[in-house]
Write a structure and sequence with these properties.
Blueprint lengths: L1 H16 L3 H14 L3 E2 L13 E6 L3 E6 L3 H7 L1 E7 L4 E12 L2 E9 L12 E11 L4 E7 L18 H4 L10 E5 L6 H11 L5 E13 L4 E3 L5 E4 L2 H16 L6 E7 L16 H9 L3 H9 L2 E5 L2 E2 L22 E3 L10 H14 L4 E3 L11 H9 L2 E6 L1 E3 L6 E4 L2 H14 L4
Parallel strand pairs: 1-2, 4-13, 4-14, 14-18, 15-19, 16-17
Antiparallel strand pairs: 2-3, 3-13, 5-6, 5-10, 6-9, 7-8, 7-10, 11-12, 12-20, 16-18, 19-20
Helix pairs in contact: 3-8, 6-11, 9-11
């Protein structure tokens, strides 16, 4: 229990700092550097040394970290890969967001991913992301911004003015969601506001803000709740929970002959097709650079396996009929193997058996999820990566409630349980 408590306390610190994909990758990079991993640039020639740890970033929002194996060991034992994604559904600020109505200053927003919109109303919101600017010496630079304080809200309309709100409310993303920032006599220049915020935070050489990628987020921090602190509640559990679990498994796994890899891609929530998404070339290009010989690379992949870690739908006690009766995962009952006959998940009987075997060795219970036969199934980076790389793949995740809400809920025991299994997976010499 002590190890689980310490694990969850550090997980909470990570979740509170990782407010956007850019900040999540920065947090992971700092933890890797502290553990002795070295960052490598994709623009430079690589000379990785066996036994050493390395990582690369792309777009500042995707990351691949690995312990480099001996070439012969990589061919004979393959790679142990854990995959997750850094992005979460949210509201993003539009390029020309300024709205000035009735003396109120608002920002127009765009919905990113499959957001559960109702919970975004009446929350204390802040702003974070990446800002690109021209410096005083004429260079184009980028920096991260996180205001870390409530500056905005999406107020609900009073029930007296919307009598059907509790029975038939439909949210119009264009007209209902502009966020309230303050009261002004004139419409402010949002880019100038960004410049002022950055200069106050120490960006002294800024001449002009050129563009930005900014998300709104809930300032309420992650927490353990419940009578016995059975639950973990936070924003962005889908899928920063898996990013953290995979990172800790990589850092804490014992040395092995096989290569040990964590890959966390951006843009999963919008289809993964981008230069840094799972349907893009990032992982394939990385492996081709490390193993340029095609025959050796294919032999290594034949002995490799990817565990795609992305949260699963736990059985909600108020909506238990939304699950297949025999495949309803419960919180705090172990990680969930996700299965779909139509390949929305990449699990097969061999990869699920390997995971069950490793979980039994670690003393961790395992559950299964299959969507109801009369409902559509979501997907993950698992089938995409399997199709791009040709590697055996398993889809697994921690069960949770309120997926894609501004605040989600998981069991406080499950993340640590999955971490223990992934540690064993990273060190397994034969699969």
């Amino acid at each position: 229990m002590k190890q689980q408590t310490e694990f969850n306390q550090d997980l909470i610190r990570f979740l509170d700092q990782a407010t956007t994909p850019f900040h999540a990758v920065e947090q992971m990079a700092q933890r890797l550097l502290k553990a002795g991993f070295r960052e490598m640039s994709e623009a430079e020639h690589w000379r990785p040394e066996p036994g050493e740890g390395y990582f690369i970033r792309r777009n500042g929002s995707s990351i691949i970290a690995w312990r480099h194996p001996e070439q012969e060991a990589a061919v004979n034992q393959g790679w142990r890969l854990v995959g997750a994604h850094t992005d979460s559904p949210c509201l993003k600020v539009k390029p020309n967001p300024e709205l000035h109505r009735k003396g109120y200053f608002q920002l127009g927003v765009e919905v990113y991913g499959g957001v559960l919109l109702n919970p975004w109303f009446d929350r204390d919101l802040s702003l974070a992301g990446r800002v690109t600017y021209r410096s005083k010496d004429g260079a184009v630079c980028s920096t991260l911004l996180d205001l870390r304080r409530p500056i905005a809200v999406v107020p609900s309309l009073a029930i007296h003015l919307d009598r059907e709100a509790n029975s038939s409310r439909t949210i119009n993303a264009q007209t209902f969601l502009p966020v309230l920032m303050g009261q002004t006599d004139e419409k402010p220049d949002f880019r100038q506001l960004l410049a002022d915020w950055l200069m106050r935070e120490g960006t002294g050489n800024l001449a002009q803000v050129l563009d930005y990628e900014l998300c709104l987020y809930d300032t309420q921090g992650a927490a353990l709740i419940g009578l016995e602190q059975e639950f973990l509640t936070s924003a962005r559990l889908d899928n920063l929970l898996s990013c953290y679990i995979g990172l800790q498994a990589l850092l804490d796994a014992p040395a092995a002959g096989a290569g040990q890899v964590l890959v966390c891609n951006d843009h999963e929530e919008v289809g993964s097709l981008s230069a840094c998404g799972a349907q893009g070339p990032m992982l394939t290009q990385w492996l081709e650079r490390l193993m340029p010989d095609v025959d050796n690379r294919n032999r290594a992949l034949a002995r490799s396996m990817l565990i795609s870690a992305d949260n699963a739908h736990g059985v909600h006690p108020n909506f238990a009929d939304r699950h297949d009766d025999n495949h309803g995962p419960l919180l705090n009952r172990g990680p969930v193997i996700k299965i779909n006959a139509n390949q929305r998940y990449a699990t097969n009987s061999e990869t699920s058996s390997i995971f069950r075997h490793l979980a039994a060795q670690a003393g961790v219970p395992v559950q299964s999820f299959v969507v109801r036969s009369d409902m559509a199934c979501g997907s993950t980076i698992g089938p995409i990566t399997a199709g791009e790389l040709g590697v055996r793949t398993l889809d697994v995740g921690v069960p949770q409630f309120a997926m894609h809400s501004i605040r989600e809920l998981a069991g406080s025991a499950d993340a640590h349980g999955l971490y223990r299994v992934l540690q064993r997976f990273m060190a397994e010499p034969r699969l």
